[in-house]
Amino acid sequence: MTPFKINKLSMSGFTFPAMPLAGFLQSKYILLMPLYAITMGLDTIAIAGIFFATKMFDVVTDPVFGILSDRYETPWGRRRPWLVIGTLILMLAIYMLFIPAGQVGQGYLFGWLLVVYVGWTLTTVSHTAWALELSSDYDQRTNITGWLQVSAMIGMMLVALVPAVMEQLGSPTHAEKVAAVGWLLIILLPIAVFVCLRSLPEPATRPPEHIGFRRALTIVAGNWALLRLLGANAAITAAYAVVQSLFVFYVTYTLLLGDRTGFTLFFLMVGGMVFIPVWVNLAKRISKHATMQFAVLYGMFVPILLLILPPERLWLTAFAFLFVGAITSAHELLPRTMMADVCDHDQAASGNERMGLYYSLLQLSSKLAAGFMASGIYLALSWIGFDSDAGGENSQAMIDNIRYLIVFTPIAAYLLVLLLMWKYPIDRARQKELRRIIDERAGI
Known about the structure:
Shape: globular
CATH superfamily: MFS general substrate transporter like domains
Number of domains: 1
CATH class: Mainly Alpha
Strand content: under 5%
Oligomer: single chain
């Protein structure tokens, strides 16, 4: 279990940083990419290339930081210092990206995306690895991850609520909406991290044993549960990246509700929030991987609502996105709680607890999948002839293609998740056996 008491108050404080961090992730594709495509006038192919190229930077930085954070203990802990440093970097980069001074170009976007990803890696790997280390129990890990997801969904709802309120009070430009969200994130981040640091201690860990690079790599590469989880996580992330990348275009040009994108996005997030206890309780009743299969089955059928939505029907659109959004909370919750169990497999084999490395690999798979899919969607828009500068002046056929992309691309990704989770090897009984091996080695 845990060597210290975890209650609702301490968990709400500890998970507070997930709120602005998830808010940033949500706004990056839904608000930021359209800002540089529509307002700044950058070519969609160029934006696609920039977002994908900067993701390649993470191929090196994520696992390297995961290894370093696992290996080196400071007087303040393994996770805490990096969480603070990453927060400061992230605040600066968000300001530069969300509130650009005047017209900026491709080099500006590329440079500050690199900086923001450094901050993002330091904060999210540190915070989530710390969270997954709080308990060794199969079901309590799901509860902890559920708390993280509640905070994350609140952050996503806030990001949607800011533009929605602005739309009700006036006629803000897209750039004004993005700037308001940027200031919200910049203010929330330091407050959330301060509260987190005061809420829970870091669990004590044994000094790592030296096992050699070759053996360590062999253990990771031979962990089939890890490889299958990374593949499933990449596919489920890619599916949501499609919805995020096309959301503004779909609502604005297909549904003709461009002045209500924030309102519609809010309902997408509410759907995710409402379903968090469903996924948590289902994972505790059956298993985590079976719950993931159920979630993606749901995700394969409900988005068909977006295929038949008529234009200019605000409340019907909000109702549809409420149900479409239900799976959004499963995207992060289930892979993260499953990764803690995969780390047990590694610890039983290697003798070392390497949660930072393993979560960095999970995050890397998310980043690459999201970057590849978001870039691919922008390339697809260009290839089908959609002109972001022309907007609603595009032909009806081009606008209908947005509808097909947002519905059918995620279905293909979810089918892959179903296959990867079939007969997944780590269930509740296997995780308990792994913990028995780990505890016996530690003399517990």
